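For practice. Any example?
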Amino acid sequence: MDLRVRALESLLVEKGYVDPKVLDVLIETYETKVGPHNGARVVAKAWADAQYRRWLLQDASAAIASLGYIGRQGECMVALANTARVHNMVVCTLCSCYPWPVLGLPPVWYKSAPYRSRAVIDPRAVLREFGVTLPDDVDLRVWDSTAEIRYLVLPIRPLGTDGWSEEQLATLVTRDSMIGTGMPKQPAQLPSER
């Protein structure tokens, strides 16, 4: 795959369709400025700051933009809080609408037809395939992203994280937990500091 990508890039550069410097800027942007680490910072701030959490749940677009995470595919955001009684999961049934500024590029499975259809038809089975089994008394809500609205799931803060800094909390947040197809890491899952 890597060789094919390089060959295609070389051909596009050779034909003058792509400027290598512009391509480098795009790659650097998605590696360092856009991605799930941005969403993890949003979630960590909401976990650590009750006022920010309220703002995020009332006006996610503004709350997220206040941290500098703005751009295409993230103009109109809605944050969905998971609780002990409600679990939220996001899908885009029509295509692959996805909040790039906070989650980066969508994973391949998110864009796949099986995920897009099965997430609506049998979401609990889809979650089980991702390793998430919800108790029967938890209400599972599936949200369909559109070209106008993108969703960010605010997962439940893991126990045992009282007193943690936002930076520490962000290490627990996974991309899948912000889509609702996964859970945040537990403190015990992090490598111990030596």
Observations:
- The longest strand covers residues 86-91.
- Residues 92 and 145 are 5 Å apart (CA to CA).
- The beta strands are 77-81, 86-91, 139-144, 150-154.
- The two ends are 37 Å apart (CA to CA).
